[in-house]
Amino acid sequence: MKIVLCTTLALLAFAGNSILCRLALGEGAIDAASFTIIRLLSGIIVLAIILLMTPTHKGSTSKGSWKASIMLFLYAITFSYAYISLETGVGALILFGSVQITMIVVGLFLGNKLHYSEWFGLIVAFSGFVYLVLPDLTTPSLMGFILMCIAGVAWGFYTFAGKASINPMSDTAYNFFRTLPLVLILTAVTFQYASLSHKGILLAVLSGSIASGVGYAIWYVALGGLSTVQAAVLQLLVPVIAAAGGVLFASEAFTLRLAMSSVMVLGGIMAMILGRYYSKEYEKT
Asked: Whole domain around residue 187: which residue ranges?
């Protein structure tokens, strides 16, 4: 029940980040750099408070890594800039589609061979990505697509780091802490271009403190009880949740193109994941 609850809350947090970011950036309530800065700083503050209030974390040797922190920052900054030009459901679809493809490609580099069903799924998933942005391809949507793909790759590596987490809350907190130098550099470079509003700041704080800080710690807890296949399949629910949130909270339309591309991308990735799972089960027998 603990894993089920943590997984459910984490998936809602992932979708919440897409909704909050789109509400802030899509309506021009804040600029992308400021959203990222406030989001990460809010996460740092909340996680620091949680660690201070939790004696069991004192003296823990589980303190994240610089690699995970860099991936976290790269994900956060590209995620924000991508949502300037992408709608909620589209962005989440590209993000988590890229996450799954990243995890599978990394597996290839580690020596895992693809079953024919996985190759089929990979082709279908990439076709879905192409269909999503064509034939109405424009510079903003292309740039948003590229940035969100980068965010997905970064999140994929961050998820891999979480599989080895011994103390999820401590690891998440220190991963956030280590982004501080990069946050300060980003602040210095973009300070003169900052565009803030009370609504934008509030949305960034909610994204950083709850949906990111607490949400990512919960995800690291969930990963401890999930297999790689389970973690991959479950994250495929996020684009659907995010798209529904975009319709409800951001007055976005759930278009036929998004529906078709969702079926292609998520169906292709599902074929890849299940293809690997059942091919391994067949080899065992």
From this structure: 2-284
User: Cβ of 51: how many Cβ atoms within 10 Å?
Assistant: 19
CB atoms within 10 A of CB 5: 12
Q: In whole angstroms, what is the distance from residue 257 CA to residue 14 CA?
A: 23
Indicate the pTM of the whole model.
Answer: 0.82
Identity (one letter) of the amino acid at 210?
I
Report the candidate in 215, 217, 266, 176 with the shortest Cα–Cα distance to residue 16: 215
Q: Report the distance separating Cα 253 and Cα 247, nearest Å.
A: 6
Closest residue by Cα to residue 79 from 160, 134, 172, 146? 146
C-alpha closest to that of 276 among 99, 92, 105, 158: 105
Helix 256-284 × helix 116-133 angle, to 10°? 170
- Tokens standing for residue 110: 């580690």
- CB-based contact 90:33 (threshold 8 Å): no
Q: What is the pLDDT of residues 83-134, one digit of tens each?
A: 998 888 788 888 888 887 887 777 777 776 667 777 787 788 778 777 766 6
Return the amino acid letter for 78: T
Residues in the chain: 285
Instruction: Quick: pLDDT tens for 157-167.
Output: 998 888 777 88
Instruction: Output DSSP code: residue 206.
Output: H
Domain count for the chain = 1
Sign of the torsion formed by the C-alpha atoms of 129, 132, 137 and 138: negative
Residue 87 neighbours by CB distance under 10 Å: 24
